[in-house]
Amino acid sequence: MDGVDMNNLTKSQMLFDRFKILRKLGSGGFGAVYEAYDCRFAIRVAIKVELKRRNSSTVNKEAEILMNLQGNRHVLQCLESGEQDNYNYLLMEVAAISVSNLLHSLGGRKFPLTLAAQLGCNFVKALQEVHNAGYLHRDVKPSNFVLKKVENTRRVYIIDFGLAKEIENNNVAAKKKNIEFVGTLKYASVNVHKRKPYGRNDDLMSMFYSFLEISSGLPWGDDDEEEVVALKKIEIKPRTLIGNKPEAVYQIYMKLLSLTYKDSIDYAWFINKFKSLITSNIGPADRTRTGTSQCRQQNEIPRDNVISDMSVD
Which region is the signal sequence (predicted)? Predict the structure, then answer.
């Protein structure tokens, strides 16, 4: 495999004389992720590949975390990890589509509030599983949640544990100095911008920003500098950020603002708040933002793209 650019494999190209590349799913400093056909076992898989490094391996670390998370409802199955030629690789079951790609397919429209709340409910459940296993995800965003059809439902799974780490003892975390930014600017909490110790509350704030992004959008962009994004997050008034969404959304945000890295999380409280949105009608924010006819169109997204039958239990 010498001389092969792992970030730019093409469709039908063979990898390790075993995997037939189908499409690229993503890339980063670690390497790249592809959907591929495993010719040995005749199945479709997601394969993450990175060049071997002397002192560290993102893929090997992620494989270890995934193995510790196996059996959880909202974590994809880790099929295999290993080394081939000069590369580390990780095999996982493949999902149908990411939440961000599903949103992108709507051509600028956002999800109806009830649908976004279904997703938000499952975002919390996924993070609860990760946290209960002793890990912080540290890069929660719509592209790191994927959907996979399971029987007659579409289930939400959390992916990409390349930045994840074990939850530290509060005393250890409190003594940390020179904390670096971690995550994605658009979805990072204010605490992360302030370089405070990362906690479960920060994963949940990123979850909430993800919920706002898919339901109405965020008032800061992907291309803004960190100082600009942080200032907007700090200065924006809660009611301005929430807009005309139901009171439960405001309550979720205020609860998150009150938490620190030291606090335990009442996941059931957040889940119940999202469930209250699922059972309610479309909120006034949707009508104000889109108008009655457009709001009706939002709810007429082709059924193949709707997660109306997604499990929320």
Answer: none
